[in-house]
Design goal:
It is built from five helices and no strands. The chain is an all-alpha fold. It has two domains: 31 residues; 68 residues. The longest helix has 31 residues. The chain starts with a helix and ends in a 5-residue tail after the last helix.
């Protein structure tokens, strides 16, 4: 517990930035009209390609004995990939709504 408190005190500014960005994100997303949710979500999910690349870099730079970095990198790759694929599926469904019916 002492190590965790020490880490939090050493990285206090970073913790504040993360907390403030969470609140800011909730406020921004909460004020988006429902008509724009689907295109906004699909565009934001496509940005997760950057997360996938970053996770692959972290996994490549991690020591073979650093299981925490390897597990977190693997989870980031899997979840980022699911998010990217889901974003493209949502976009495809949205575009299907605007096609003329036969």
């Amino acid at each position: 517990m002492t190590e965790i408190l020490g880490w939090l005190q050493a990285h206090q500014q970073m913790v504040y930035i993360v907390i403030l960005s969470i609140f800011l994100g909730v406020e921004v997303i909460g004020r988006v009209p429902s008509v724009l949710h689907t295109p906004l979500m699909s565009g934001a999910n496509a940005i997760h390609g950057v997360v996938i690349i970053g996770a692959i870099i972290v996994m490549g730079q991690a020591d073979s004995g650093n299981y925490l970095a390897l597990i977190l990198g693997f989870l980031a790759v899997v979840l980022g990939t699911l998010n990217v694929v889901g974003g493209f599926v949502v976009t495809d469904r949205m575009l299907e709504m605007f096609k003329k019916k036969k």
